[in-house]
Amino acid sequence: MPPSETRAGARSAEAGGVAGVVVRRAALGEILALRHAVLRAGLPPEAAAFDGDDEPATLHVGAFLPGGRVAGCASAMCRPFDDRPAHQLRGMATRPDLAGRGIGTRVLRFVEAAIARAGGQGLVWCNARVPAVEFYRRAGWTVVSDVFDIPTAGPHRRMLRDLTPASRRP
């Protein structure tokens, strides 16, 4: 299996894994429908397209079931955090019928590993929906804001993760 892919099929059913899931880089077109269905339901489809989606440095990731159906997704784009170079995680979604089975964690870890491998500043941030805050905390992220509202998406908290190796931190 190429190093750019991971297979979740090795997880046992008791651990909640979903057999045969492949996490890999994806084209925006492969993940946009899931992003819309989970994060922008009830809004026009174009509401699921973000500024920066088409930038060359933007990373789109998908978790794919056998047969190619998308089960999870995320995107990371170069966006500063408090005037420091960073990546913003956006559009993180898992099919609701597969939530809690490790797909989101696999997608998040894939994105983090890709950013860390790229070198440079490994600072990653996101605006996490309040119900997802604990998911990110368990993954090593830190809450760095009070609750704020995004009109089309509801209450959020800003979260941060520094992937820079300790030996390279200022």
Write a compact overview of the structure shown.
This protein has about 170 residues and is of the alpha+beta class.
Number of domains: 1
SSE order: EEHEEEHEHEEE
Catalogue the unreliable spans. 1-15
**End-to-end C-alpha gap:** 36 Å
Corresponding CATH superfamily:
Gcn5-related N-acetyltransferase (GNAT)
- Global geometry: globular
- Which CATH C-level class is it? Alpha Beta
Note the beta-strand portion: 25-35%
Number of alpha- plus pi-helical segments: 3
From the structure provided, what is the oligomeric state, counting identical versus distinct chains? single chain
CATH architectural arrangement: 3-Layer(aba) Sandwich
Helix content: 10-25%
Rg for CA atoms: 16 Å
Main beta sheet strand tally, sense and closure: 9 strands, mixed
Mean pLDDT: 87
Structural class: alpha+beta
The tally of beta strands, per DSSP, is 9
CATH third-level topology: Aminopeptidase
